[in-house]
């Protein structure tokens, strides 16, 4: 009886669909804004619904919750198109935009970082 039970449990476990969690995706993104061009190192972690990014201009690292849709990734006023890797920042919520009336949207591009990492 024990063997039948164990065989049934084992077969059920093997037949159960397993969810393959995607590895984080690393991007290098540039954005043209009023201060020139900004570079961001971006890590998309769809399994955790987060995005981490490093801003080269000021040396700041940020980790934020993100929304992953089939078309784009949305986080902290930024948007990355999942098909053509267009990178956008919505400025309409910033104090700078409200005071200066600068551009409502900064636009740039991302490339997938295929650098091999040791860990």
From TrEMBL:
Keywords annotated in UniProt: Signal
Residues making up the signal peptide according to the UniProt record: 1-22
Highest taxon of source: Bacteria
Protein name, entry field: C-type lysozyme inhibitor domain-containing protein
Source organism (scientific name): Erythrobacter ani
């Amino acid at each position: 009886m024990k063997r039948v039970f164990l065989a049934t449990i084992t077969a059920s476990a093997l037949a159960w669909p397993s969810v393959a969690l995607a590895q984080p995706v690393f991007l290098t993104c540039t954005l043209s804004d009023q201060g020139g061009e900004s570079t961001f190192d971006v890590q998309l972690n769809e399994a955790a619904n987060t995005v981490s990014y490093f801003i080269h201009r000021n040396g700041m690292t940020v980790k934020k919750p993100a929304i992953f849709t089939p078309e784009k990734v949305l986080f902290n006023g930024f948007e990355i198109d999942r098909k053509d890797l267009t990178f956008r920042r919505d400025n309409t919520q910033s104090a700078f935009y409200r005071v200066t009336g600068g551009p409502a949207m900064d636009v740039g591009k991302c490339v997938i970082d295929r650098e091999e990492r040791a860990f």
